[in-house]
Amino acid sequence: MIISLVLPCYNPPADWEKVVYENFGSFSNKIAEKSELILALDGKSANVKEQSLQYLKDHIQQLTVVNYEENRGKGYAIRQGVAKAKGDIIIYTDVDFPYDAASMYSIYKQLVSDTCDVAVGVKNESYYTHVPLVRRIISKFLRSVVRTFLSMPITDTQCGLKGFKRVVAPLFLQTTIDRYLFDLEFVRNCYVSKKYRVLAVPVALNDNVHFRKMNFRILLPEMLNFAKLLFRKTR
User: Fold this and answer.
1) Which domains can be identified in the chain, with CATH numbers?
2) Would you say the C-alpha torsion 222, 161, 123, 170 has a positive or negative sign?
3) Distance between CA 202 and CA 212 in Å, rounded?
4) CA neighbours within 13 Å on the CB side: how many for 92?
5) Residues 174 and 99 sit within 8 Å (Cβ to Cβ)
6) φ and ψ of 190, to 5 deg
7) Per-residue model confidence (pLDDT) at position 223
8) How many Å apart are CA 79 and CA 186, to the nearest integer?
9) Which residues contact 178 (CB under 8 A, 6 or more apart)?
10) Whole-angstrom Cα distance, residue 163 to residue 169?
């Protein structure tokens, strides 16, 4: 069995390559299966220095780097990584590993023990004590909207830590949203298909996690994406 870890990468923080190496190494050493890392660079403008990539290539033998010309968004990047993944289980998170090691292991454990086909990280209440006010408002508002209009058992669809078995990969690759709401589209599609067991897995942030400034320009396009998802449901 192989475990694939997919990381989207765009404008990563300083020393990100060392964070990736340390966290991937720690995770790989803790599990019994073989592991691979797929790094998806989100366009040539991803602001990734060649020496950082070379550091990872020198230190991680089982590394695959995916790149393309245009910046397309996190959802698009992860789809490109998943398409290259060889694993029987595929897990994705952010390049700065914002969730603690126990959370990632918990996602892995639920899948490898066959408890579920899709493991969806769900942030605990302490998450909201870490995040800036604007993010807190948007996150809680989205959860309320999902609960009201999509009636899904899991309302926290935007947590950046999820995993699924290889059999689910084709469904993930069918998602069409390139940016913020690709997670919601994926989880919704899992429930609509009625083929897979979906499990909410509580996860926790690292103490030193850093939040980027919210890009408000994506809000209108994502509102339109939500409307499209709602239309698909009612249609």
Assistant:
1) 2-234 (3.90.550.10)
2) positive
3) 23
4) 31
5) no
6) -65, -45
7) 75
8) 11
9) 72, 73, 74, 75, 76
10) 10
Which residue blocks in 5-132 are alpha helix, DSSP H? 16-30, 50-59, 74-84, 101-112, 127-130
228: pLDDT confidence band, cut at 50, 70 and 90?
A: confident
Using DSSP bridges, classify how beta strands 89-92 and 162-165 pair: parallel, antiparallel or unpaired: antiparallel
Length of the chain counted residue by residue: 235
Q: Report residue 214: phi and psi, to 5°.
A: -65, 130
What is the tens place of the pLDDT at every residue in 28-82?
A: 999 989 999 999 999 887 789 899 999 999 999 999 999 998 999 999 999 999 9
- pTM, 2 dp: 0.89
Quote the Cα angle for 177-201-119, to 5°: 50
CB-based burial label for 89 (10 Å; 0-12, 13-18, 19+): buried
Bridge partners of residue 9, in order along the sequence: 41
* Both structure tokens of 2: 């192989």
pLDDT at 218 over 70: no
Q: Retrieve residue 27's tokens.
A: 């995770």
Pairing of strands 2-9, 63-67: unpaired
What distance in Å separates the CA atoms of residue 235 and residue 231, rounded to the nearest whole number?
6
pLDDT digits (tens, 9 = 90+) for 162-202: 999 999 999 999 999 998 899 999 999 999 999 999 999 99
